[in-house]
Each structure stands twice: as structure tokens, then as C-alpha cells.
Specification:
With 107 residues, the protein is an alpha+beta fold. Helix content is 27%, strand content 38%. Helix 2 links the parallel strand 3 and strand 4. The longest helix has 24 residues.
Length: 107
């Protein structure tokens, strides 16, 4: 089991290194919200949702917002464009009225 723990640690370090590389390469940003709860209204239905993180990015003299949803399992971006949408969480987040213009969402 010690060998498995070492492999897991190595995988976590690798994943964190990749994530930090993405963060460093991004435009200047401010974390606008963390673990914030919102009310999402769809016609006569209302849902309480909790968004993991929203970043505010100033790009080309425009302020935009990026929704980040942390996932614990590997995700396939092609699923966002599939005929049958299987993970509706991020697309629904873009409909939250309290969040200004969403530029991009990612998990």
C-alpha cells in the first residue's frame, strides 16, 4: 500500500503543477466569488446552487467573468456539445442572474 500512496502523491503533484501552469498563463484576474450560493430561476422553478469559484477578468477594456467548477473526476469537454447533455451544472450556472456577463465556464 505504501507504493500506491507514493503513486497517488506523484499524480497529485503532477495535477497541481499543470493547474498552476494554467493559472500563471492567464490574464490578470481577481477571484470575485468563492463557494457562493445563488438562486437560479427557470420559469416557475427555483434552485439554490453553489458555485465553486468565479473569476473577474479585465480583457480588452472589458470586464468578464469566468465560472470555475472543480471536479474530482476527469471530465470530457466534448460532453458539453453532445446531443444529449449529461452534465447540466455549468450551462445552468451561466443563467444565474446575479452573475454579470459570463465569458467562459470551465471545470
Amino acid at each position: 500500500t505504501h507504493g500506491i500512496v507514493l503513486i497517488e502523491i506523484e499524480l497529485i503533484y503532477d495535477l497541481m503543477g499543470k493547474w498552476l501552469g494554467v493559472e500563471i498563463a492567464r490574464n490578470n484576474f481577481t477571484v470575485w466569488a468563492l463557494e457562493q450560493e445563488y438562486l437560479l430561476k427557470l420559469e416557475d422553478l427555483s434552485f439554490k446552487v453553489r458555485v465553486d469559484r468565479i473569476d473577474q477578468v479585465d480583457a480588452m477594456s472589458e470586464t468578464k467573468y469566468i465560472i470555475i467548477d472543480y471536479k474530482t473526476s476527469k471530465q470530457n469537454m466534448n460532453n458539453l456539445f453532445a446531443e444529449e447533455l449529461r452534465n447540466v451544472q455549468l450551462p445552468l450556472y451561466t443563467l444565474i442572474e446575479q452573475i454579470p456577463q459570463v465569458y467562459h465556464s470551465c471545470s
